[in-house]
Amino acid sequence: MTSTYPLLDSVALPADLRKLNREQLETLAAELRAFILHSVAQTGGHLASNLGAVELTIALHYVFNTPDDRLVWDVGHQSYPHKIITGRREAMAGLRKAGGIAGFPKRDESPYDTFGTGHSSTSISAALGMAVAAKLAGLEHRSVAIIGDGAMTAGMAFEALNNAGDIDANLLVILNDNDMSISPNVGALNNYLARLMSGRFYAAARRAGEKVLGKVPPMLELARRTEEHVKGMVTPGTLFEEFGFNYIGPIDGHDLDVLVDTLTNIRRLRGPQFLHIVTRKGKGYAPAEDNPCLYHGVSRFEPDTGIVEKIAAKPTYTQVFGDWLCDMAATEPRLIGITPAMREGSGLVRFSEEYPDRYFDVGIAEQHALTFAAGLACDGYKPVVAIYSTFLQRAYDQLIHDIALQKLPVVLAIDRAGLVGADGPTHAGSFDLSYLRCIPNLTLMTPSDENECRQMLYTAMTLDGPAAVRYPRGTGPGAAIEATMHALPVGKGILRRTGRRVALLAFGSMVAPALAAATRLDASVADMRFVKPLDEELLHQLAQTHELLVTLEENAVMGGAGSAVIECLLRLGLPTRVVQMGLPDIFIDHGDHATMLKNCGLDADGIEAMVHQHLPE
Ligand SMILES: Cc1ncc(C[n+]2csc(CCOP(=O)(O)OP(=O)(O)O)c2C)c(N)n1
Ligand SMILES: CC(=O)[C@@H](O)[C@H](O)COP(=O)(O)O
Ligand SMILES: [Mg+2]
C-alpha cells in the first residue's frame, strides 16, 4: 500500500530533512500539514498555530544545525511540526494524553526541546541565555527565539529585547506575525506591526528584504544594512532596530524559498538579529483559517467538516462567571471587565459585545492587568480581572503591592484553579490557595458548585477590599443557579452533613467527592467556602466533636487551605488529629482530569481509603 506521507516517512530526524533538496520541501510541508490536521483531529490540541508554523519549522531545521543550534518556541503551542520532525511522529497519537507526549516543548522529552514552555513570552530571555552561554564557552552555536505577535505584547519580551539589543551575542528573534493572539491581537504594538506591513515602513522594509534575496550579494547587503544600522543611518528605523537589532522583513512565512534563503543568510551574521515573518493562523485548513480562534485549542473534530466534538452538557464555571459578569454589569455601572488576552477562555465574549466600553483586553500582560485594575479602583471603579490561576502567578507582586497593600476593591475571578488535564503542569492552577492565603486584606473563596460561584462573585463585589473567587476548569456538580444574587456571610462555611467520628473539611471542588464518600463513612462534611477568613467557629465545633478532621482541597497540600486549618487549630489550642489531602509536592503530568485527581486520592474512593487508614473501625 502506498503511504499517504511518503516524504514525511523519510524524515525521522532533522538530519534526514537536511538531505532533501530544496524542491522537495514544498511537498514535505504539504504532507506535514496534512499529518498534523488528521492527528490533532483525533487527539484535540492547539491546531491553528501549528498549521501556521509548518514552513517555518521546516526551514529552521533545514538551515540550522539543531539541536546544537537552539530553537526556543514561545508558548510552545506551535511546536507540533517540530515534534514530528524530531522523532516524535508516532507519539503524536498520544499527544496530551496520560503517558503520552506533552503539548508543549519539554526538555526531558527530546534534546531538540531546548527549553520548556507553556507560559508565553519567555523565549527571547531563554534564547539569549543560551546565546550568552555559547559565547562564554567559545562555541559557534546559534540561538533562535520564535515568538508570536501575541506573545510579543508581554512586558517580559521587551525586557529581553532591551537586554539582548545591548549584548553582542548570536541571537536571532523571529517574530511570527499572524495578526492573532488567541482572539484578534490587541494594543498599540499590534497597530504598529500592521503599519509596518502596510505603510511606508513596509515599502522600505520589503525593499530591504528583497535586497537580501535579490541581485546584491545577500551577505554584502546585510553587512551594509548592519553597518548603516550601527551608524544610525537607517531611517526610519523600526522599533526593533531602535532596540539594537538588525531588522529583516517582513517576509512571507509560508514561502519556503524565501525562508530558507533568508535564514541561510542570517545564520552567517553575528550579533542580535530580528526576522519578521508574516503567516496565517490555521494555514491550509479552511475552517481554521476562517475561525482561528475556535481552532486555537480545539477538542477532537471531524477533519472533513470541521465539526468539533461537544463535551459539556452542563454550564462550565467559565460560563457561570461570564453570565454573572453581564448580570452584574447591568446593575453596577462602575464594573469594568479585564482580561489579559483570554477573552474566550475566561468567558468574556458576551461581556465584550454587550459592554465594549467597559471591556479591556490588555494583551498578554498579567502584571499590567492587575495594576491597571488597581488604578481604576483608586478612582471609584469596580474592576473584575478574569485570570487563569496559572497566569496569576505572573502578577504576584502587583497583587500584593498595588492591590492588597492599598486595600483596593479589585475582584479576581480565578479560573482553571486546580488540575487542568491535557495542558499539564505548565497550566495547572495548583498553587493559588498557598500563595494567596498569606496576603493580608484579601478575601479568598472556593465555590463548591455553580450557584455558590455566582453568589461568591457577587459577595466579592460587595467588599471594600480585594477578593478572589477561584474555580476549576470545566463543569461543576450541576447545581441550579439562582437568578437573584445575594451576599454570603463572609468567613462562614456550612455544614452539609452531620456524621460521627470524622469530619471532612472540604474546599471548592472537593465538596462533591467529600459528600459522596461521607455517606459510606457516615462522616460530617463542611463546605468551608472561605479559605480566608477561615470559619474558626465551625472549625472549633467540628474539632471538639470529631476524632479526626480531614482537609480536602484541589491545591498543593503545602501551605494550602489544610495548612490554614492546622494553623488555626494550633492557635485555638485544639489537639484534634488532622489529615491533609490535596495535591502532592510534585509537578503532575498531563492527562485526563478525573484520573489525575483519582491518582492523587482526591475522589470519593481515595477519601474513604484515607479515612480508614487513619481511623480504623
Ligand atoms: C503568560 C501567559 N498568558 C496567557 C497565555 C495564554 N496564551 C497561550 S497562546 C496565546 C496567544 C499567543 O499568540 P501568539 O504568540 O501570537 O501565537 P499564535 O497563537 O498566534 O500562534 C495566549 C494568550 C499563556 N500561554 N501564557
Ligand atoms: C497555550 C495556552 O496557554 C492556551 O491556549 C491554553 O492551552 C488554553 O487553555 P484552556 O483550554 O484551558 O483555555
Ligand atoms: Mg499570533
Topology:
Elements: H1 6-9, H2 14-17, H3 22-43, H4 47-52, H5 54-63, E1 70-73, H6 80-88, H7 123-136, E2 143-148, H8 155-164, E3 171-177, H9 188-198, H10 200-213, H11 218-230, H12 239-242, E4 246-252, H13 256-267, E5 273-278, H14 286-290, E6 301-302, E7 307-308, H15 317-331, E8 335-339, H16 349-354, E9 359-361, H17 366-378, E10 382-388, H18 389-392, H19 396-404, E11 411-415, H20 432-436, E12 443-445, H21 450-462, E13 467-470, E14 494-497, E15 502-506, H22 511-521, E16 524-527, E17 530-532, H23 536-545, E18 548-556, H24 561-572, E19 577-583, H25 593-599, H26 604-614
Could you characterize what this model shows?
The protein is α/β, with parallel strands linked by helices. The protein has three domains: 251 residues, Thiamin diphosphate (ThDP)-binding fold, Pyr/PP domains (Rossmann fold), CATH 3.40.50.970; 154 residues, Thiamin diphosphate (ThDP)-binding fold, Pyr/PP domains (Rossmann fold), CATH 3.40.50.970; 121 residues, Rossmann fold. It has 26 helices and 19 strands. The strands form four sheets. The chain has a seven-stranded mixed sheet, with helices on both faces. Helix 24 links the parallel strand 18 and strand 19. Helix 10 packs across helix 11. The longest helix has 22 residues. It starts with 5 loop residues before the first helix and ends with a helix. 1-deoxy-D-xylulose-5-phosphate binds next to loops.
